[in-house]
Amino acid sequence: MDLILINGAIWRSGQSFAQALAVNHGRITAVGANEEILRLRTHQSRCIDAGGRLVLPGFNDSHVHFLEGGFHLLGVDLRDAASPAEMGRRLAHAAAGLPPGNWISGGFWDHERWPGKPLPHRALIDAAVPDHPVFVVRLDWHMGVANSQALRLAGIDADTPSPAGGAIDLDPASGAPTGILRDEAMRLITRILPAPSTAERQKAAGSAMQHAARLGVTTVQGSCTAEELAFYRALEQEGKLKCRISAWHSVAGPEDVEKMAGEPKLDTPLLRSGTAKLFSDGSFGASTAWLFEPYEGSAANFGLAIHAPEMLQKMVTRIDALGWQMAIHAIGDRAVHETLTALERAQAANAAGARRHRIEHAQMVRTQDMPRFKKLGILASLQPSHAIDDLRWIADRIGTRTALAYRYRSFVEHGIPVALGTDWTVEPLTPLLTLYAAVTREKPGGGPAGGWHSRECVGLAQALQDYTRGSAFAMGRETVQGALTPGYYADFIVLDQNLFETNPRDWLAAGVDVTVVAGEVIYDRNNAVG
Fold it and tell me: Which residue segments constitute the domains of the chain, with CATH numbers given?
């Protein structure tokens, strides 16, 4: 045996636990009592004495922006900037270490934290960073702000029309762009951003993988470009890929769909492709999630449809015919409804197949649309920590309709498969925060008492199941991944507390002691593995 673990509380499912396990050639070979597993030990076997601690399958985050997250860890962080002035100071500090003309991007600001909640303006950034083009996005990736230099480089001025599925905000007094770009309008900037070098990608990927290992995340799923997929493949071939990745092909429009027809799908133990990522709408934070009824305080703002329903249906039908899985971003109730309709028509048009299409986020779903998920075999890819973060302001956007938002138990009760994730960098990659949000629906500091719309809370075992086996099911690997069972990949973690025996509020202070991927110890907090 390459590795054995003894004296553990090894979670199997529900409230079932085992004591020890053995690993050989990257897979679990046996699970049982200490005596049984110790008989398999050889002089080459490394040993983890769990000391009674909880052992879980590695967390499988079903929706991340992984490489971007690595760049975020290395770059300017605006997420907790408490005011526009603080945003300006941080950008100025970041610029001080760069040669003039270098782009500053990322950031992930949150104007909901600022007094009065004003959107940032290009003038703020112009004053703070006069010598660099700047484009920093809101934490939800659906709105960004550019300074004047970046707008000039992109050719955006008062006469630039907003693209379909996007909006360029204009100053009501001057008619000039404010710098705020929403959804598809962001591409006017992102398409001219310089591509990172291989060395820069390596540094960002290393940072992201280390961060994931410390948190017990052993698999991630999310969008990437063709260049990034080739980069991940090179890391895998060099033995430097230390987590499993399901890489999604980004689809912005019909031209991207046709490019997929001849593209091969990867399926190696560490790297998988074959999923297409589409967008149906924007986000609540940017007031661009597509709704049946208008946003609070506006008679005309129903959000943004990234694609007209007819185009969405055409694209979905074609991708389904090509045999690709789809992960479709849909947040507003109208977006979810139209996405289900597109998937329904694709199924009617094409030969039957088990492609396990998914709706990402599904943050607002009408009750009458819930059974359609089940009927069509559509998975719900959810991020519970969105609920406890967004509850600060979501009622300002949709009023009493919050009862239909950020649902979880409703999906379970309708028999709809669920995969859990974080949407990192939109929310922290921290799985224990995600579990806390799923079980309590309370803010980390406490409240609302009993949980926000508490009927949508689930139990710990359900959340763990969806965060491990459920996410594996979403990527077609539930027979080899997501459970501590003989024959499965040896991806597991050791926690410093037993979540089943502690108060959920204590989970926020819990930590990971050991992380193992494919039988290799990639994180050992206390150097305890012998």
Answer: 3-52+490-524 (2.30.40.10), 76-190 (3.10.310.70), 198-474 (3.20.20.140)
